[in-house]
Amino acid sequence: MWAIRMFLTIIFLIVAIAFFIYNANERVDVNILHTRYLDVPLMVVLLISFGAGMIASFLLAVTYFFRISSESSANKRLIKRLEAEITSLRNRQIDQIDSV
Q1: Taking a C-beta distance cutoff of 8 angstroms, is the pair 30, 40 a contact?
Q2: Count of domains observed in the chain
Q3: What's the distance, Cα to Cα, between the start and end of the chain in Å?
Q4: What is the three-class DSSP state of 92?
Q5: What does each C-alpha distance from 80 to 8, 69, 77 come to in angstroms?
Q6: Average pLDDT for residues 57-82, to the nearest whole number?
Q7: Which pLDDT score is estimated for 88?
Q8: How many CA atoms lie within 13 A of 2 on its CB side?
């Protein structure tokens, strides 16, 4: 599995580098909210966009990790409580069970 992941990463990097080299001299205008940036190199726009996407993905992953971690600890507490209940039911005497 790691070989496939490494192969895809190398292919992605080759395509990205080729794209950057091909568009090295391109300049674009960028409109963000009410601010306009004129004659910005395309590579700068792409790198900033990529970085912003990485930061957003990281923040989403961290919140997902904390949510899953919280659910996991809640499930562990529930399992311990249920195991204690099962143990107490196993340790009851038969006459106590009939009277219930």
Answers
A1: yes
A2: 1
A3: 56
A4: coil
A5: 43, 17, 5
A6: 96
A7: 87
A8: 0
DSSP-assigned states of every residue in 22-40: HTTT-EEEEEETTEEEEEE
Note down the domain range covering 12: 2-99
Decide: pTM greater than 0.90.
no
Write down the H helix ranges in the chain.
2-22, 42-90, 94-99
Query: Hunting for tokens 């009939």 — which residue is that?
Result: 98
User: Is 41 in a helix, a strand, or coil?
Assistant: strand
Residue 14 has pLDDT above 80, yes or no: yes
Contacts of 36 (CB under 8 A, 6+ apart): 29, 30
Which residue reads 């038969």 in tokens?
94
Q: What is the dihedral of CA 22, 25, 26, 32, to 10 degrees?
A: 120
pLDDT per position as a tens digit, 19-62: 888 888 889 999 988 899 999 988 888 889 989 999 999 999 99
CA dist., res. 88 & res. 86, Å (int): 5
